[in-house]
Specification:
By secondary structure, the chain is an alpha/beta fold. It has 2 domains: 177 residues, Alpha-Beta Complex (Quinone Oxidoreductase, Chain A, domain 1), CATH 3.90.180.10; 133 residues, Rossmann fold. The protein is 29% helix and 27% strand. It is built from 12 helices and 18 strands. The strands form 4 sheets. Strands 3, 5, 6, 9, 10, 17 and 18 form a 7-stranded mixed sheet that branches. It has a 6-stranded parallel sheet with strand order 13-12-11-14-15-16, sandwiched between helices. A 3-stranded antiparallel sheet has the order 2-1-4, with no helix packed on it. It is globular, with a radius of gyration of 20 Å. It starts with a strand and ends with a strand.
């Protein structure tokens, strides 16, 4: 079968013929239909310091996908041939304290699809049936392909109650924009999203944010004044991993404000912990999705009319992966999709 492989310890990806994967006990074989390009995939293509440490070579990459089940192992009863599915890309041990307590997203032995196990940028992929999410209601294939990052957005956005709250989101990448859409859908009063990219701020406006603020030109304080806010934001979602973004967020929170942090910094950086303590601000780290509570919430949000289509801006046949990756790396885009059916 054809697959995108990180074959060598140098920048680049290679479209190669590799053996079709075989299912093991409790697993399913999935014919891949669409995949989404993630920031993680860009790191692997670039082969930066993180990728050099995290990825064993050779490796079929990719973890955002939708596909059709074509084979199930004996004993698998909750997934059937013909099911349209996406997959939870964090494979857990099932034996540690958190797994046994039902907190699988906190497993200390998590293996990432497309990082520690061959991934979904291929014509076929295998997964444990326990990691498969069956789409029980109709869903657009492009949207189904990005359920993984959509789950990051939902996990972040629903970490704290949102009804009638004023929300600040720093970072208008695709996940930040999806989080903004969720916050508005869930009943937030004001949703302000910040970035320095006019293109991405325009995308954010399409999902109905109250204010898309270019912080290269305006301060968050100016945004507050424009909206008539007097006491700061109730909820923060830090999606950029930028030191200045978190520092500005902290300084613009109300007393007792709560911040969910998904953005992953590249290095350590200082913050004003005196402000955090004296303002009684809560910081919560977010990684991945809650299995599978977040997935239920994602499906229900879409059933309830949440529209993610503005976030998807690029579609390519998988053979044109280089052009797709170049667009995804360029920043003037939302989510970029690869079609594996052509």
């Amino acid at each position: 079968m054809k697959a995108l492989v990180k074959a060598k310890g140098e920048p680049g990806l290679w479209l190669m013929d590799v053996p079709e994967p075989e299912i093991g006990p409790g697993e399913v074989l999935i014919k891949v239909l669409r995949t989404g390009i993630c920031g993680t995939d860009l790191h692997i293509r670039k082969y930066d310091t993180w990728a050099q440490q995290a990825v064993s070579l050779p490796r079929v990459i990719g973890h955002e996908f939708v596909g059709e089940v074509v084979e199930v192992a004996p004993g698998v009863t909750d997934v059937a041939v013909g099911d349209l599915v996406s997959g939870e890309g964090h494979l857990v041990c099932g034996k540690c304290r958190n797994c046994l307590a039902g907190r699988r997203h906190l497993c200390r032995s998590t293996v990432g699809l497309g990082i520690g196990r061959d991934g979904a940028f291929a014509e076929y992929v295998t997964l444990p049936a326990s990691n498969v999410w069956v789409h029980r209601v109709p869903v657009d294939l492009d949207v189904a392909a990005i359920f993984d990052p959509f789950g990051n957005a939902v996990h972040t956005a629903l970490s704290f109650p949102l009804v009638n709250e004023d929300v600040l989101i720093t970072g208008a990448g695709p996940i930040g924009i999806m989080a903004a859409a969720v916050a508005k859908h869930a009943g937030a009063r004001n949703v302000v999203i910040t970035d320095v990219s006019p293109y991405r701020l325009q995308l954010a406006e399409k999902v109905g944010v109250t204010l898309a603020l270019n912080v290269a030109d305006h301060t968050i304080e100016e945004g507050q004044r424009k909206l008539g806010m007097r006491e700061g934001f109730d909820i923060g979602m830090e999606m950029s991993g930028r030191p200045e973004a978190l520092r500005e967020m902290i300084s613009n929170m109300t007393n007792g404000g709560r911040i969910a942090m998904l953005g992953l910094p590249s290095d350590e950086f200082p913050v004003d912990f005196a402000k955090i303590v004296t303002s009684m601000i809560t910081l919560k780290g977010i990684y991945g999705r809650e299995m599978f509570e977040t997935w239920y919430a994602m499906s229900v949000l879409l059933e309830g009319g949440l529209d993610l289509s503005p976030v998807i801006t690029g579609r390519y046949p998988y053979q044109e992966f280089d052009a797709a990756f170049d667009e995804a790396a360029g920043g003037r885009c939302g989510k970029v999709i690869l079609d594996w059916t052509v």
